[in-house]
Structure formats: C-alpha cells, structure tokens
Design brief:
Elements (H helix, E strand, L loop, with lengths): L1 E5 H4 L7 E7 L10 E2 L6 E2 L7 E4 L6 E4 L2 E5 L4 H10 L15 H6 L3 E2 L2 E2 L4 E6 L2 E4 L5 E2 L2 E2 L7 E5 L6 H12 L19 H7 L6 E2 L2 E3 L7 E3 L5 H19 L8 E2 L1
Parallel strand pairs: 2-5, 3-5, 4-18
Antiparallel strand pairs: 1-2, 6-7, 7-14, 8-9, 10-11, 10-14, 12-13, 15-16, 16-17
Length: 257
Amino acid sequence: MTRRIDFSKYSSIKIGPIVEVRLIDTVEAFSDEVFIIGGANNLLVSPHPKPLAMLSKHFDYITLHDKQLTVGGATKSGRIFSFVKKHDIKGFEYLGKLPGTLGGLVYMNAGMKEDEIFNHLVKIKTAKGYISKEEIAFGYRFTDIDDIIYEAVFDVEEGFDHEKLALFTKMRANQPKDPSPGSAFKNPNGDYAGRLIEAVGMKGYHIGDAAFSDVHANFLVNLGNATFKDALTLLNLAKEKVFQKFGIALENEVQIV
C-alpha cells in the first residue's frame, strides 16, 4: 500500500513535491535506498527524493505495564505527551512542545535542554529484534541507529513536572511562527549555531522565501513560497560563511532527502 503525500502541505516547512510513499504494516528490513519520513517535522524534501516510506497506524500505540512505557514508532509526540501527563509520568514534558513521531524522536535523540528521549530509554525494536540502550551510541541530537525504529520501551518515573512544562512552553513562545523544520544546524561544541549565523550577518537573511528567522537565527523558515533550491542554497551559504570566519563546520540538524 502507498499514501500520496504533498510535502508542501505535510512537511513542517511546507516545501516539497507530491510523492507516493509506501506504508509499512509489518516489521521488516529495508535497504538504505529507502528513507523513512515519520512526521516530516525536520525534513527538507527535494523535487526528486529517494524512495520514501512511513510506518502505518499499526505502529501507533502506547501501553503502560510493570513501570515500563511501550510506544509504537508511528505514535505522535502529542499523543505520548497526553498519556504521560494523564498518568503522572515525569521526563517527557518537552514532548508537549516538540513535534514528531516516536521513531524520529528516538533516531535523533530529540529533546530540549538536558531533557532528551534517551534519558529514560530501555530498548528499541528493529527488524533485528530488540536492541538495548547500552548497545547504541548516542549523544546530543545523535544516535548511530541505522534501522527503522518500530517500537521503543522506556522506564517510568512518577511525578509529571508542571514547572518544566511551563519552562518549555516559554522557550517555544520565543521561537518563530513561520513554517519551519526547527533548528537548521546542530550547536557545535561550546558554541551556538544561532550565534554564529548572526555573527556572519545572516539572521533574517533570505534567498527567495527561504530565510533564517529574524526571531531566532538558527531557525530555517518558509516566508511563503520557498523552494527546495532556495532553502538548500541558504543552508550552504551559511555553512560557507561560518567556516570562512570561524573555521567551524556547521552540521545539519534538518535532514535533506
């Protein structure tokens, strides 16, 4: 089965073609030629992407048993957030302000500040079976996972933290409202990508309708009718300018397909 997706409407940055995307209903292995799109919240999709696939609703579930939370790879962050809030579970408060599906969130070790999804992770399920957290290399917005994440299991701690939720809500209130995949670049060690982009004069800079937000320099935004070429050219120009001035090679946080 396939699903016809218009990425100019489906993706968070509102850029991309109309593509037939394969729906995955069963646990199976896929080659590197297939890209899993998830919720397309941090994707920039080209006019001619590699073959795309996504998990079907079969992998959209949450269960709580023996102080462990089991979540399907297609489950959206908003549903997970509602569940943990209702059941007074701590450590996932940031999901109220962070879009995505479970698979993508785990793959990039998503989070806000020191709170990240690997903090409570026990294991993931791939086509190879269950893989424990200890077998995975991970760090800031990074994992070495190279398989589809069909499910993840987390330890549960009681005590949903409303103060943290208020903090994350305040942080998000200061971010751009334009369509965006979020942060364009990962923060380099000991520095901030936003500071570097602003230092080379690119805060608010745009090519066509693709811009670095004048609210937060590290946010790639679509001012209306940005194209893939506009966005990619802008990203590459920022990398070039930052490297020329600071000798720092910025690394994409937005994924380019």
